[in-house]
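Subject: Immunity 53 family protein

B.,
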Amino acid sequence: MEILRWLQEWYASQCDGEWEHVGGIRITSIDNPGWHVAITLDGLEMENKQMDVVRIERTDDDWIYCKKQDGCFTGVGGPGNLEEILKFFYQWATIIHKECECNYYL
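Prediction pasted inline below.
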């Protein structure tokens, strides 16, 4: 539950009257089955922060794929990987150096 608390606090700190209206955070299910997380980065401090693509395939139901593209962090994963996607976003978002290689994993 700590990651949800952090995400809620991070979300609240980004809300400026505009950002939350143009995208914000979207968490939806996909038909693989699994999860899709999209977090709009346009206008945020981390908008220009580098991120390597992350692809982890353990099994058909245990996988994640995260990337930053077109001003958005996108993470998809298996039915049990939502928390893992959010933790990866947390790690990437809280790295001090803006220009880094984020090709590590939790």
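Residues 2-93 form one domain.

T.
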